[in-house]
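Sample pair:
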Amino acid sequence: MHDSASTARSFTMEDQRNFAAFCGDGNPIHMEALSARRTQAGAPVVHGIHVLLWTLETLLGSGTLAAAPRSLRVRFRAPVLVGSDVRLETHKKNDGTVSAKVRMGEASCCSVEAADRTSLTAPMRVPLSDASVPAATIPQSPLERVFDAASLPSGRFRLFEPRAEILWPLTEAAFGRPSLQAMGFISTLVGMVYPGLYSLLGSVDIDFDGPDTAWMDFRVVETDDRFQRTVIEIAGAGVKARVEAFFRAPPIAQPHISALAPHMQPREFGGSVALVVGGSRGLGALTAKILAAGGARVLLTYAVGAEEAAEVQKEIREAGGACEILKFDALQDAFAVPAGHPAPTHAYYFATPKIFLSRRTKAFSREVLDYFTAFYVDGMEKLVRTLAEAHPDPIRVFNPSSVAITERTPNMAEYVMAKAAAEILGEYLVRSYGNVSVVSHRLPRLLTDQTVTVSPVQTAPAEDVMLPLIRQFQSTA
């Protein structure tokens, strides 16, 4: 027999700021929309320990958890995104163990098990030195570290004093303030110290029978270079914990235009006017640089990355190229060439949503298919129709498709279906508009902020793939 219940909420940026003020974890993936956009999550991510504390507060408030347990086992399986609706499903077993799952849509993001048994079976290897050893303070900015499988750092930090009002009064009352601070310290250690700036929290096992100290000791006890994984042991303030964390890849930097220019023929794209939709980052930004380096006049659009688009424009102009930027949302806006700007002769449609969505329980989701179709099918149709009807001169449209169509990449049925539909749509658009030609090319997986993974993947340099394709596309009548 068991009891079960469910509750729901969403986390706001104000919630993020309150948690960061509480413990000092100001990692940009949680706090800055632009920085978070340059990660595979694509949007600000709720601190994992914040999700844990909300879960504990909810369990205590509902009576599902009557008192502080002896241990917690927490697994973070997918990011909880700021602004997304999440729900907490709880389950109480006859032996008193309470389990909870945090779901965002169909995705299981976090699981928590609270039990009156010890979760850490292996002996701790944290060096518990005496009180005379000085303790450091948490840095104000996250440390930027590089994974090193041979490095096993350790250290000691003073237990922080909460910098904001305690937002989990029931959890504080049940566990005590030192234990609450110790849980917050786990987030801060991972996000600010080790791994630091480019980190992901994977799992946490906590026992509430650790040494009663006013500081926190930590030691890295295990690394795995296959996944850039690290295991950290933590002890202090009445808590012992074993933490699994990962080094995530930093933002993918596309080549500077100065590195592309030597591979171009002088003015080989001269006389062309290239519209690059979604050109503020990734393959769109690379395409804009290649075109400009070859002498094309570039009109680059962005939906949300204004600062990134301005950086691409600055880079192109400083190299002597011609580039204008324009805010344009392929889902909302009707495209119009700015006044005084010549009509495009070529268009590249790199508008794209978040590609790798969180894990789901079903093989197919109509909602996810509609999500991809809005970008790859509806958005492209509207752009091509607008260009064809507004400008009678011929225009060529590059539709970046994907080898995932033939490879049948697992867990991406909706993405593959939308990409295949966009290829078919391109053929029909050519028949409908006599002045338009649409070329779909199935690109291999190339490293971008969206496609990079924790486990290193070998891919060809994006410029080696894109340059010959652009050259062929620009030169074909």
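The first helix runs from residue 13 to 23.
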